[in-house]
Amino acid sequence: MALTTGFPLPSQAAEKIILKYSILRESVSIPELSQLSKTGEVSSSLQSYLNLANQKPEDLQRWLNQSFNIDPIVLSEVLNSFVGKYLLQQIAEVIHTPSQRSNIEALRGALISSATEDQNISLIEVLENYPTAELQVEGDRLMELYQQIKGLVGKIPRFPL
């Protein structure tokens, strides 16, 4: 059980994601993405996918590591508010389980677990803490989602960016 939030930490974390970008789909392991986020090193399979998607590893690394500073208790309160539920729905359209069942609960748990670790939330932390073995990420919608989150989060005074 998480110490201050009352939310359980994931007993099963995501092992792989299906990264979708335009018409492309590729299975990528979470350890591959973690390696890229921490060291900048990209596996050959991920590099091939990024080449096809016309994306740079540095850009993906930046997206994986972009973080928001937030207290986990404040985050829990916000995610249970009307605005928070809307935000979760928006995120769940971009990061979701293959079946799209229990997306909101899984996402809420991953976000709170991520914030509990270091009072920061980054995409790589959310992916690592997502409580299902597999999830899908709509890669071509990440930028749009980020802009929406930044706009919403910027309006909440207790969310420093």
Automatic annotation (TrEMBL):
<keyword id="KW-0378">Hydrolase</keyword>
<protein>
    <submittedName>
        <fullName>Alpha/beta hydrolase</fullName>
    </submittedName>
</protein>
<dbReference type="InterPro" id="IPR010802">
    <property type="entry name" value="DUF1400"/>
</dbReference>
<feature type="domain" description="DUF1400">
    <location>
        <begin position="13"/>
        <end position="137"/>
    </location>
</feature>
<dbReference type="GO" id="GO:0016787">
    <property type="term" value="F:hydrolase activity"/>
</dbReference>
<dbReference type="Pfam" id="PF07176">
    <property type="entry name" value="DUF1400"/>
</dbReference>
